[in-house]
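Budget justification aside, the reviewers requested a transparent look at the raw inputs and outputs of the sequence design task funded under Objective 1. We therefore reproduce one unedited record. The lines immediately below are the structure tokens for a 207-residue chain.
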């Protein structure tokens, strides 16, 4: 999630200072994407530089709140109206790891898949536990975030199952050759041999 637009969305509720923005951001996302206070103030400085927020006079406690400007509202509205493209999302480290594991000598790809599946299943169980406790009306935003993480974890488990099946299917047999049956192989107990053609009488032993 873009911290830049996340802070603008929070300021649309009303003026806030840095610590309030940090707390509100983490409450809205259920602590899924924690922010440090330095990141908040760095982002506010950039938003102020771009004319998207405006600082207000300091309070008696020395805290300086910020408010969103009209330009900030226009930018926020455009962000909400623009779909998120796949190219804008971070690279998937797990996908890259498995792709490299397949081509790196000495790496047990099956073990990498199993380790990740165990961790993902543990995460899935934790998300399920958290969802069971988020039943208040004000928890809707957190529940939606949690649902997204649940669906992503479930999809990751299915993808890992697919990876494991693909690895087994394409794994070469000992000697570097695919474990497939030769094309000219005959099944056991097939047709009689040429020495004993079909329909030949059976010799009786002397009594």
């Amino acid at each position: 999630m873009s911290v830049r637009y996340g802070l603008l969305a929070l300021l649309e509720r009303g003026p806030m200072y840095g610590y309030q923005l940090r707390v509100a951001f983490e409450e809205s996302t259920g602590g899924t994407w924690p922010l440090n206070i330095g990141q908040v103030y760095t982002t506010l400085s950039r938003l102020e530089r771009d004319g998207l927020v405006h600082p207000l006079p300091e309070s008696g406690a020395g805290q300086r709140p910020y408010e969103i400007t009209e330009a900030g509202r226009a930018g926020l509205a455009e962000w909400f109206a623009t779909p998120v493209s796949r190219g804008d999302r971070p690279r998937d480290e797990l996908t890259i790891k498995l792709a490299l594991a397949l081509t790196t000598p000495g790496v047990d790809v099956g073990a990498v898949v199993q380790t990740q599946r165990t961790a993902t299943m543990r995460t899935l169980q934790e998300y399920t536990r958290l969802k069971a406790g988020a039943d208040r009306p004000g928890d809707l935003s957190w529940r939606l975030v949690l649902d997204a993480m649940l669906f992503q974890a479930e999809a990751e488990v299915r993808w890992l199952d697919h990876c494991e099946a693909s690895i087994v299917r394409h794994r070469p047999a000992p000697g570097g050759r695919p474990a497939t049956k030769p094309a000219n192989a005959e099944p056991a107990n097939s047709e009689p041999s040429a020495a004993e053609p079909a329909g030949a009488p059976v010799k009786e032993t002397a009594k």
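The first helix runs from residue 3 to 11. The CA atoms of residues 6 and 25 lie 7 Å apart. Computational costs for records of this kind are itemized in the attached budget.
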